[in-house]
Amino acid sequence: MDFVSLLIGWLSDAAHWAGSDGVPVRVLEHLEYTVISLLIAVVIGFPLGALVGHTGRGGLLLVGAANGLRALPTLGVLTIVVLLAGIGVVPAIAGLVLLAVPPVMAGTYAGIRAVEPIVVDAARGVGMREWKVLASVEVPNAMPLIFGGVRSAALQVVATATVAAYVGLGGLGRYVFDGLAIRDYAQVASGALVVAVLAVVVDLVFIGLQRLVVSPGLAPAKSGKASA
């Protein structure tokens, strides 16, 4: 029996879709880790990116910090946190948050800095306070890049949340790690395939949300249209 047949056989087995170890339960666990990590990353990364983008101070430091965090290996961070805090949900979430903060922070910073200075100056000219300029002018105009950063972070976290199984948690990583332990490569491949499908679904959801949240006037113009 070839590998594709084994993969189809594993996915079509009803036993793998029921119970506490079934695919639906593992998907929900996977999404839980993703949502928690992404929310924490937004709480950390958005204010930092917005503040630095608005003031223009510390931009090089922020970009350097973002690149440094991106260079950290998630599994290595996870191992260190496990040694410090013990096995549990904290190490997994910590590793995923470190992965998600850079794109959120960088997207917010880039979006704020990309707002036309004349628009910001006009807001200040009518007497807006700095916090009002940021909240009412810069952030709305920066939404395409801000949302792009959050979307990028979400996809990275979905793809990497399998590491939660490394510290004994659930999620789709259970199929990968458990399958490797018993050399059930059909299970490993099935888990990886479900993660890939989930990432595509999450991406489509974010595309839909972006169309709802971002003003059509801020969306990039479609190429191929000649000017009148």
UniProtKB/TrEMBL annotation:
GO biological process per UniProt: glycine betaine transport; transmembrane transport
Keywords of the record: Membrane, Transmembrane, Transmembrane helix, Transport
TM stretches of this protein: 36-54, 75-101, 153-176, 188-209
Topology in the lipid bilayer: Multi-pass membrane protein
Cellular component, GO annotation: plasma membrane
All copies of domain ABC transmembrane type-1, residue ranges: 27-206
One Pfam match: BPD_transp_1
Compartments (UniProt record): Cell membrane; Membrane
InterPro entries given in the database record: ABC_transp_perm/SBD (IPR051204), MetI-like (IPR000515), MetI-like_sf (IPR035906)
Family: Belongs to the binding-protein-dependent transport system permease family.
Protein name in the entry: ABC transmembrane type-1 domain-containing protein
UniProt lineage: Bacteria, Bacillati, Actinomycetota, Actinomycetes, Pseudonocardiales
